[in-house]
């Protein structure tokens, strides 16, 4: 059984004439290019602790297989605004799992993407915890309901946005939650 004890969040942008190289440069900007990344779904393990990017990267070794939740977006369409975001919702009950969400969009700001990813994670957790809420209300209103329930201790998100600056140049944005063991 492999259960992560920690997680760190990071993000990056890469630009290059080749798609794959732009992705590599985005991972490099995020500080995780030396890892063999394996994407996983959206469960935040019970007891998992958030750590700084610096501490997380210090614990990694070149070539290591690292499980992560990753959002990525790429384009070579001039002036296209790209975003990638990962949201997290952590329950107050330490023995219960939380949620991570990955979100990628075009034409949205970094803040809009981050808020949406946070909303996705919080809403998934709220439904599993039986928190009653109106799904048609704005996230700010629902967030207050989630917090007041006492069942969700923290929500957050990391996002990266960038525009494609040159014709025929690939831009890739990534946002990741990388698990530590």
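^ structure tokens above, recovered residues below v
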């Amino acid at each position: 059984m492999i259960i992560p004890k920690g997680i760190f969040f990071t993000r990056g942008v890469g630009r290059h004439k080749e798609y794959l190289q732009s992705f590599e440069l985005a991972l490099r900007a995020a500080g995780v290019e030396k890892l063999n990344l394996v994407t996983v779904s959206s469960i935040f393990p019970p007891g998992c602790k958030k750590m700084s990017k610096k501490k997380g990267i210090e614990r990694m070794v070149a070539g290591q297989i690292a499980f992560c939740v990753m959002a990525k977006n790429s384009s070579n369409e001039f002036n296209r605004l790209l975003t990638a975001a990962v949201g997290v919702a952590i329950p107050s009950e330490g023995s219960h799992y939380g949620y991570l969400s990955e979100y990628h969009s075009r034409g949205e700001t970094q803040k809009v993407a981050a808020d949406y990813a946070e909303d996705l994670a919080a809403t998934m957790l709220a439904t599993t915890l039986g928190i009653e809420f109106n799904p048609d209300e704005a996230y700010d209103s629902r967030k207050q309901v989630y917090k007041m329930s006492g069942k969700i201790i923290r929500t957050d998100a990391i996002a990266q946005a960038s525009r494609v600056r040159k014709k025929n140049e690939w831009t890739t944005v990534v946002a990741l939650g990388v698990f530590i063991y």
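The beta strands are 6-16, 36-39, 43-44, 49-50, 65-75, 81-91, 98-106, 152-163, 170-180.
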